[in-house]
Design a protein that fits this description.
Elements lengths: L1 H14 L1 H6 L4 H7 L3 H4 L18 H4 L69 H9 L8 H4 L20 H13 L2 H5 L1 H35 L8 H10 L1 H34 L14 H26 L1 H6 L1 H24 L5 E5 L2 E2 L11 E4 L2 E4 L1 H7 L11 H5 L2 E5 L53 H8 L19 H30 L2 H4 L12 H5 L4 H33 L18 H17 L2 H29 L13 H18 L1 H18 L6 E5 L11 H10 L5 E8 L2 H22 L3 E8 L2 H11 L9 E4 L12 H15 L3 E6 L15 E6 L6 H9 L9 E8 L5 H14 L5 E6 L7 H35 L31 H22 L10 H21 L4 E5 L10 H12 L5 E5 L11
Helix pairs in contact: 1-3, 3-33, 6-32, 8-19, 10-18, 10-19, 10-24, 10-25, 11-12, 12-13, 12-22, 12-23, 12-24, 12-26, 13-22, 13-23, 15-19, 15-22, 18-24, 18-25, 22-23, 24-25, 24-26, 25-26, 29-30, 33-34, 33-35, 35-36
Length: 1108
């Protein structure tokens, strides 16, 4: 590359000689035509500004307040041969990867043609900071299988050597979200408790209960939809979606509440299955039998505990051995639910013209338990004789028709039979509109049935249908709420969805609407078709131990009994399948360290330990043994889960959190707040003590995981009077944080701590006062150190505590570094850049910070321009979003520019970038700038030559100064000869100190050699004045870098000269310190002609993603 381009440049010089004299040739070409001798003497050096590479007039952006113009009126020298410029290694450990930082061993022979001259400044780090074009291609082709799949199943074959080919997600809204949500929402409560709830609460209050619960889940679903559209939905279920979007503290709290709720739901489903089995299918299978009539409930509870434990063990074994079979049978379980519900509607329609025969035996207005007698009469006619019926025997304890031992209520009241299912046309709905709550042990009575109100014998109470628990509106809310949970089933399949952002909101909302309509219609149908005392009969004692909802169904009660049993078993299996995976995902995130053991499992990723813990927790629910006692517990956990989801969404919106940018157009923070309020109200309505316990658990989880967001460390420079030199750095920091979060302000005072302690205290007070003025929340830390660079390194390493550790450093630009002979300022700057890179921290360098707006200014228009050259974590995208939260920048528009090379498809890049920004939920104007691989211009060569001449000249000047000081030191102490090796020492030199007890012996030869060294050094400085610059001696790697800086600057100034702020990728710093000054020069060239520039260097980790 070098030879060809030099020849092209020389030809251009010959051609333009006469044009320059006439004033028609462009400025770079005229520079090339200047005789070389004219550049050798320092006074002849002109004042240069950045000139475009192409032949365009400069006037349109030369007027930007003359900012950052370059003054080259100092003498310059030729560069040292072999001057290398290596950038910091991408791993932050300073490892040299190769001799030439831009060529590997296989490509070294390609010469200059290999280099991408337009990105030479960023070349070495392209492996970890890729070009935008390559990054966009990967992100746009993203499938959500990549995130979270490994957390659940190791995609490896049995030998572990070959990875399975993952199928692309293909499920749509119907199969992927709608039907799974329907299956999870419909469950045991619908079949076992909804009729009882309607009987106790009445139709109107039942409507209210269903409305409250469904509104709660609907509002939570809207919040979930906002989360689902807040970036690409990762695979791994609702926990991954929430934690990646809302942060670890909300994600962990929601995740654990959801886990505990799902685990207790598994216990509830198992108890429901056992209740169906022992009450309606095979009552003979009971192990424990009541010793007397009043011991029936305790015997039933013991049966539930034994059978529940057996069922739990069997289900856990099934999940452990073959979880894939559970998923295969999911459609069968869903079919059972659908068929059962359809049979209810069919039975309700049939009851209009042909109600089923289920007579109820009433004694007065009291309901009798029908399973203990056959004939509903006091006497029966047998062989033409009136004899005592079974009912008479039970109440009078005699087969004779004697009344001396009879129950008084039995004698005074008539026995009658009424229809248990009068049908929809009977008008029974009027009687069932109002509530009829009962105390525990109270007899079920029919309100309008004639009766004589006398006391009966207590030992005959078992003959009546009794209320087994005290009921109230609050109790029924707690029992019913589990029947509306299951709204997260769709998000649990996020990895299988073709378009999760669309399917999750649409499918879940449709499922809730469908299930809500089913619940409302069932409440209405039950109230219109079934007698009130039958509705209040929880276990169907009045209808001969039939499932109450089954008595209404068509063609047979067994349709619902069998269907509900299998669907309940299936729901229990799915709960035991999902809960351990949820716990495994939480454990693998390591947000709660003591759960780490549950992140491990079998070789194929099955969560063995998590399954064991889930089974143990579910066993606690089964030992409670009552469906009505377990339901409020899981209601608490689900309500707490939904409360956290709504709270998080509302808080994120109100605080304008950077990673909260949902696209769901029907979302509003007020809906989340309303949903949170309903969740809180339902918790305390159903059980205030359970609510307090659940809130305490969730609050402890939240505080345990709590993690503060991104923090800034602002490094301030103080002047001689200990005043802040650039207070606008604090202004910028306050605007970046928008008044939220904490900021650490650090500064370094050079000296001895014992001697300068007072100065440090005064400096700290000065900074605190300035922080109050600029309204910066945080604290400051002033460090005293012998060297400024060491003090800054200490601040970077040690500032902050725990969650308050900073992850971004704000550093001021070293103004006037060219004019100063003292290299400490720019050496400190570059050392700080290296420290932040090694510490994997992001770095922000505001240039021309004095031109940045104050907090009292307002930009009513203008642009914030982002020049995205390479991708290093997305900090460039996040910063404009943060700034626009502040009132100063709020009305500015965001424009994103990226650079396309010759081999890039710029049209496709623009489409990909627009898609990427859509996934990031960022509104910005997109533009792709094409940079052609043009020849390196004469101006670039001249600029590089003068940079190298100036660099070498300053080295020689420092050398002569050092020599003079050394000579004086030699006169003072002849033993200091050991210091001769430090040729470029300054106050910041990091060489090892020389021990004072070194003994040196002077000889005539050593004295002569020392004189020769000093003479050669001075001679080389004299040669500096008469050096003849030639293009042959210009370091070609520096030419390439200068070409990158000039070309990029040309494009940036052309497009963004009127921008309010320009954000730009900061190239990597040099590792070889000989190239430090060149690096500073490249940054100056890159940012010339721009009023406000923010150089950004990412910390190597993603700060803004398509997930959050």
């Amino acid at each position: 590359m070098g030879g060809v381009e030099e020849r092209g440049f020389l030809r251009g010089s010959d051609r333009t000689g006469q044009e320059c004299a006439a004033g028609s040739a462009p400025r770079p070409a005229c520079l090339a035509a200047v005789p070389r001798g004219a550049l050798s003497a320092p006074p002849a050096m002109p004042h240069f500004t950045v000139v475009p590479v192409e032949d365009k007039p400069r006037a349109e952006y030369d007027s930007v307040e003359g900012l950052s113009w370059v003054d080259y009126r100092e003498p310059a020298a030729a560069p040292a041969p072999g001057d290398s410029y290596d950038t910091v290694s991408s791993d932050g450990h300073g490892n040299h990867k190769e001799n030439s930082p831009f060529l590997n061993s296989s490509e070294a022979g390609k010469g200059g043609d290999y280099y991408d001259r337009n990105l030479a400044l960023f070349e070495e780090e392209l492996d970890i900071r890729p070009k935008v074009s390559s990054l966009l291609g990967k992100l746009v082709n993203y499938t959500n299988l990549t995130q979270g799949v490994k957390e659940h199943e190791e995609a490896e074959s049995t030998d572990g050597s070959k990875k399975k080919v993952s199928k692309s997600p293909s499920m749509g809204t119907l199969m992927g979200v709608y039907l799974p949500c329907m299956q999870n929402i419909f469950g045991v409560i619908l079949f076992l408790r909804l009729t009882w709830m309607v009987g106790m609460a009445g139709v109107l209050q039942s409507f209210l209960i269903v409305l409250l619960c469904c509104c709660c889940t609907m509002l939570t679903t809207i919040s979930m939809s906002a989360i689902a559209t807040n970036g690409v939905v990762p695979a791994g279920g609702s926990y991954f979606m929430i934690s990646r979007s809302l942060g670890p503290e909300f994600g962990g709290a929601v995740g654990l509440c959801f886990y505990l709720g799902t685990t207790f739901a598994g216990a509830m489903y198992i108890l429901g299955a056992i209740e169906i089995l022992l009450t309606y299918i095979v009552p003979q299978a009971a192990i424990f039998h009541p010793s007397d009539a009043h011991d029936a409930s305790s015997a039933m509870l013991n049966n539930m505990r034994v059978y529940g434990t057996v069922f739990l063990i069997l289900m856990a074994v099934v999940v452990f051995v073959g979880v894939k079979y559970v998923n295969k049978f999911a459609s069968l379980f869903l079919a059972c639910v659908v068929i059962s519900i359809l049979s209810i509607y069919a039975g309700a329609i049939k009851s209009i013209f042909d109600p089923p025969e289920f007579p109820i035996c009433m004694l007065g207005n009291r309901t009798l338990s029908r399973d203990q007698f056959d004939v509903c009469a006091k006497t029966v006619v047998k062989d033409n004789m009136t004899v005592a019926s079974k009912l008479w025997e039970l109440f009078c304890h005699s087969t004779n028709l004697t009344t001396e031992h009879c129950d008084e209520y039995f004698l005074m009241n008539n026995v009658s039979e009424i229809a248990g299912i009068p049908g929809a046309a009977s008008g029974i709905l009027i009687d069932n509109l109002w509530s009829n709550y009962l105390e525990k042990g109270e007899i079920l009575e029919r309100a309008h049935q004639p009766s004589v109100d006398v006391a009966g014998q207590k030992n005959n109470l078992h003959l009546y249908v009794l209320s087994d628990i005290t009921t109230s509106f609050m109790v029924l809310v707690g029992i019913f709420f589990p029947s509306v949970t299951g709204i997260m089933a769709g998000s649990n399949r996020s990895g299988d969805l073709k378009d999760a952002q669309k399917s999750i909101p649409v499918g879940t909302i449709l499922a809730i609407v469908t299930t809500s309509l089913v619940y409302f219609s069932c409440v209405l149908l039950f109230g219109a078709c079934i007698e009130g005392v039958v509705l209040r009969d929880k276990f169907g004692d009045a209808v001969n131990r039939n499932l109450v909802v089954g008595t209404l169904s068509w063609p047979s009660p067994w349709v619902i009994v069998i269907g509900s049993f299998f669907s309940t078993c299936g729901a229990g299996l799915q709960s035991l399948t999902g809960a351990p995976r949820l716990l495994q995902a939480i454990a693998k995130d390591n947000i709660i360290p003591f759960l780490w053991i549950f992140g491990h499992g079998k070789a194929n990723g099955e969560p063995t330990w998590a399954l064991l813990l889930t089974a143990l927790i579910a066993e606690l629910g089964i030992l409670i043994a009552s469906l009505d006692m377990v339901a409020p517990i899981l209601s608490m956990f689900f309500l707490m889960c939904y409360l956290f989801v709504n709270l998080a969404c509302a808080v994120q919106t109100l605080l304008r959190t950077p990673n909260w940018r949902p696209r769901f157009k029907y979302y509003h923070w007020a809906l989340s707040f309303l949903g949170m309020s309903i969740c809180l109200a339902l918790m305390f309505i159903s059980s205030w003590y359970y609510a307090l316990v659940a809130m305490l658990i969730a609050g402890m989880i939240y505080k345990y995981i709590e993690y503060q967001g991104p923090q800034l460390l602002v490094l301030l420079k103080l002047d001689e009077d200990l005043h802040v030199k650039y207070p606008r750095l604090l202004t910028f920091a306050s605007q970046l944080k928008a008044g939220k979060g904490l900021t650490i302000i650090g500064s370094v005072i050079q000296g001895n701590f014992l001697e300068t302690y007072g100065e440090a205290q005064a400096a700290e007070q000065t900074i605190k006062n300035m922080m109050e003025i600029e309204k910066v929340k945080g604290f400051c830390q002033v460090v005293v150190a012998n060297k400024v660079r060491e003090g800054i390194a200490h601040l970077i390493q040690s500032c902050g505590l725990g969650g308050m550790k900073h992850n971004t450093v704000v550093l001021g630009w070293p103004y006037g570094w060219r004019q100063s002979e003292d290299p400490r300022s720019w050496k400190t700057f570059i050392g700080t850049v290296r420290c932040t890179t090694a510490a994997h921290l992001a770095l922000l360098v505001p240039k021309n910070v004095s031109f940045y707006p104050s907090n009292h200014e307002r930009y009513n228009e203008g642009n914030i321009d982002v020049w995205w050259i390479v991708h290093d974590g997305g900090m460039l995208m996040l910063l404009p979003f943060l700034l626009k939260q502040h009132k100063v920048w709020r009305k500015c528009k965001m424009r994103i520019f990226t650079v396309a090379q010759m081999d890039d498809n710029s049209i496709q890049m623009k489409k990909d970038l627009a898609t990427f920004l859509y996934q990031l939920r960022i509104e910005a104007e997109v533009e792709v700038v094409e940079m052609h691989n043009s020849d390196i211009s004469a101006y670039t060569y001249e600029r590089t030559l003068m940079m190298e001449q100036r660099s070498q000249m300053l080295r020689q000047m420092r050398l002569t100064k050092t020599e003079r000081e050394r000579e004086a030191q030699l006169v003072k102490d002849r033993h200091s000869i050991a210091r001769l090796e430090s040729l470029y020492s300054d106050e910041e030199d990091e060489a090892d100190p020389v021990p004072e007890n070194i003994q040196m012996t002077w000889t005539k030869e050593k004295c002569d050699a020392e004189k020769r060294n000093r003479g050669s050094a001075v001679g080389s400085f004299r040669d500096l004045i008469t050096i003849k610059p030639g293009w042959e001696i210009v370091n070609q790697s520096n030419v390439r870098r200068m070409h990158t800086a000039v070309k990029l600057n040309e494009v940036i100034v052309n497009r963004s000269h009127d921008a309010r702020l320009v954000l730009l990728n900061m190239p990597g710093p040099p590792k070889n310190t000989d190239g430090d000054e060149n690096y500073m020069e490249f940054l100056e060239v890159l940012t010339e002609g721009l009023e406000r520039v923010l150089l950004v260097r990412g910390g190597g980790r993603e700060v803004i993603t398509i997930y959050s």
